[in-house]
Structure formats: C-alpha cells, structure tokens
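Risk mitigation, structural track. In case the binding assays with nicotinamide-adenine-dinucleotide fail to produce interpretable data, a predicted complex structure has been prepared as a fallback.
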Amino acid sequence: MAPPPSSSASTERETMTTRRSVLVTGGAGFIGSHTVLQLLREGFHVSIIDNLDNSVPEALDRVRALAGPALAQNLRFFLGDLRSKEDLEKVFSSKRYDA
Ligand SMILES: NC(=O)c1ccc[n+]([C@@H]2O[C@H](COP(=O)([O-])OP(=O)(O)OC[C@H]3O[C@@H](n4cnc5c(N)ncnc54)[C@H](O)[C@@H]3O)[C@@H](O)[C@H]2O)c1
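Fallback model:
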C-alpha cells in the first residue's frame, strides 16, 4: 500500500532540505542574518560570504546561539568581498551550492 500523501510530502521535504545548500551573500547583515537563521531552522546547509563592511562577527555568534549547537554546525562563514574574484573562487571551489 502506498504511504499517505502527507508522509510522502514530508519525506520529499526532508530530502530537499537536508541535502540542499544555500549561499547567502551579505549574510552577516540585518536581512541576511535573519534569513540565515531561518534557513538553518528549515534544515538547509548555509554558507555566507560577507566582508563585514556593515556588520560584525558577533551577529553570526548570535545566529549560532539562536540556532543551537547542532544546527550551527551547518553554517560556514567566508570573510570576503563579492567584488573579488579570488574571494569568490574560495567560496565556490570548496562547495557546490543549490541556491
Ligand atoms: N531595525 C533594525 O534594527 C535595522 C538594523 C539594520 C538595518 N536595518 C534596515 O535594514 C535594511 C538594510 O538591511 P540589509 O541586510 O540589506 O543591509 P546590511 O547592511 O545590514 O547587510 C548587508 C551585508 O552585506 C555586507 N556587504 C556589503 N557589501 C559587500 C561586499 N561587496 N561583499 C561582501 N559583503 C558585503 C555587509 O557587510 C552587510 O553585512 C535597511 O533598510 C536598514 O534601514 C534595520
């Protein structure tokens, strides 16, 4: 017998989120940090590139604390500038992103 639709949808959602990786540019900023926390809570692996021009590392400490130790492990931070080819190569050479 086929599983009920809700179970199938739940499995599909779990597969999508546990395997998907998102790169958030400016993720230490106001909008970015809130977005990152929500993505972590939804089960995504999150990488951030931010040059901290208009943010502080403590913002990410706060995100990690709010996410909790287990989900905080799914967060990677790259200190870098989006305008730098070298910085972008570091971000994209170490991981594949879905979004
Ligand atoms: N209510 C509040 O407490 C509050 C606080 C801050 C901002 N805001 C509002 O939020 C809006 C802005 O939020 P936001 O998240 O768009 O901006 P933001 O400045 O908070 O975030 C942008 C992030 O991008 C980073 N960044 C900028 N240029 C970069 C580059 N070249 N390479 C890598 N990183 C770079 C910055 O360091 C910053 O962390 C504004 O409307 C502002 O008024 C509200």
